[in-house]
Design a protein that fits this description.
Helix content is about 35%, strand content about 20%. It is an alpha/beta fold. It folds into three domains: about 35-130, Fumarate Reductase Iron-sulfur Protein, Chain B, domain 2, CATH 1.10.1060.10; about 145-240 and about 385-440, FAD/NAD(P)-binding domain (3-Layer(bba) Sandwich), CATH 3.50.50.60; about 245-255 and about 265-375, FAD/NAD(P)-binding domain. A five-stranded parallel sheet has the order 3-2-1-4-17, sandwiched between helices. Strand 15 (about 390-395) and strand 16 (about 395) form a beta hairpin. Helix 2 packs across helix 9 (about 115-130) and helix 14 crosses helix 15. It is globular. The termini are far apart. The relative contact order is 0.14.
Length: about 450
């Protein structure tokens, strides 16, 4: 089955039916109770633990691991959720090897950290499987807050505000909530509908209404939201995708990696998704790795990631890079795209070798071509339709303190706001902290 008459090499059903199931199951199986106790026993329960400092949401990691070690995983989960209400997803997608586990004393001493991410998943999964919500809603304040975007930042803000007793309405442009957790990460990291299950569980706090298919600037204005709510939090992420600025990028077979990943996440039948035989992915971040690995899992024969700088400067972690190469993905560095070639559809991508010197990145004049019937762009996303009246800096909404924008009564956090690191866990922290600041402002509490 061809994706298009112009892209005969991009087809579905490349693999046997059962292979798709095996390829898209959990990339890292969860710990059982015994394994979790053994893993927890490796923790030194450090005073002033460096792992806790390295966590963007400041989870009390020694405490929750001690609670697992003493046989109380539900208590451990509540410790986690108190700081990070999306702790279940973060346990699956957080680059722990660059954050808490890299800072672990065991890592420094032995080169093998405590498995903090897997322990966090054990605790959160244990409690969530019971359908229990660990927090109760405070008495109603009579205040209403609009949250734009049902991704990690928006959900974290909405939950904290609802817990404080405010009424929250989430406006999201997509057909279902979850943001990048639902549409933008590799399927094998959160299979079996976990992202939606987590949203449903989070909403059990009460006081939150979700309105899907409502886009800021198209269906509702910022002025409308300010007029109908006591405060507004913007967490809509980055909807635009950077252009290659290379001739031929409008050829058939060239698409955004984020759209490719979203289609895969929403497909009930993974075998129905078309993929090329020779796939080239341009970029060096998590999106590039996720797109490349999943292309391989869909049956692509040759998959290559091309990044313009040296490999050490890729924003994808070393762990993710190793995962890509172990899946059969080739990584080519110090090369920038200059043209996409083909007769109506991509057939080759031309790159120029680069040098990164004191004066910045420059091409050397030497070029090479890679065969490709599918080209996926993963070179960053941009803010589209910046809300009226807000200061934008560096392509993001400018914020100070806990997410305060240049307009009174409006806060922002997550990928759309300044200061973010394009990580789920950072977005959660920003949404949570903005919610605390919104609550203080609405209740007249100085801070």
């Amino acid at each position: 089955m061809s994706n298009s008459p112009l892209t005969p090499g991009v087809v579905a059903h490349r693999l046997a039916p059962h292979v798709y199931h095996d390829n898209f199951t959990d990339v890292q199986p969860p710990l059982d109770r015994h394994e979790a106790r053994v893993a927890a026993d490796r923790c030194y329960f450090c005073h002033d633990a460096p792992c806790m400092t390295a966590c963007p949401t400041s989870i009390d990691i020694p405490l929750f691991i001690r609670q697992i070690a003493t046989g109380t995983p539900d208590a451990a989960a509540k410790t986690i959720f108190a700081q990070n209400i999306l702790g279940g997803m973060c346990a699956r997608v957080c680059p722990t090897e660059q954050l808490c586990e890299e800072a672990c004393v065991r890592e420094t001493a032995e080169g093998k950290p405590v498995e903090i991410g897997r322990l966090q998943r054990f605790a959160t999964d244990t409690l969530m499987a019971k359908g229990v919500h660990p927090f109760t809603r405070a008495a109603a304040t009579g205040k209403s807050v609009a949250v734009v975007g049902a991704g990690p930042a928006g959900l974290a803000a909405a939950h904290r505000l609802a817990m404080k007793g405010h009424d929250v309405v989430i406006y999201d442009a997509r057909p279902k909530p979850g943001g990048l957790n639902e549409f933008g990460i590799a399927t094998y990291k959160a299979p079996d509908g976990f992202a939606q299950a987590e949203v449903d569980w989070l909403l059990k706090i009460g006081g939150i209404t979700v309105k899907n298919g409502v886009a800021l600037g198209r269906d509702v204005s910022l002025a409308d939201l300010k007029a109908t709510h006591d405060a507004v939090f913007l967490g809509m992420g980055l909807a635009g995708v950077n252009a290659l600025r290379a001739a031929g990028e409008d050829l058939a077979g060239v698409r955004n990696a984020v759209d490719f990943i979203a289609d895969l996440r929403q497909a009930v039948d993974k075998s129905s998704l078309p993929v090329g035989r020779d796939v080239v992915v341009i970029g060096g971040g998590m999106t590039a790795v996720d797109a490349a690995v999943q292309s391989k899992l869909l049956g692509a024969q040759n998959v290559t990631i091309v990044y313009r700088r040296e490999q050490g400067k890729m924003s994808a972690s070393g762990y993710e890079q190793d995962h890509a190469t172990s899946a059969g993905v080739r990584i080519v560095t110090n090369a920038a795209p200059v043209a996409v070639h083909g007769d109506g559809a991509v057939a080759e991508v031309e790159f120029a070798y680069t040098e990164d010197g004191p004066d910045g990145l420059k091409t050397t004049g030497q070029t090479f071509r890679l065969k490709a019937d599918q080209l996926l762009k993963a070179i960053g996303q941009t803010l589209t339709g910046a809300p009226e009246g807000l200061t934008v800096t560096g392509g993001k909404i400018a914020t100070t303190g806990a997410g305060r924008t240049s307009v009174a009564g409006i806060w922002a956090g997550g990928d759309c706001a300044s200061g973010g690191e394009d990580l789920t866990v950072t977005a959660v922290a920003q949404g949570r902290d903005a919610a605390e600041d919104i609550h203080a402002s609405l209740m007249g509490v100085s801070g």
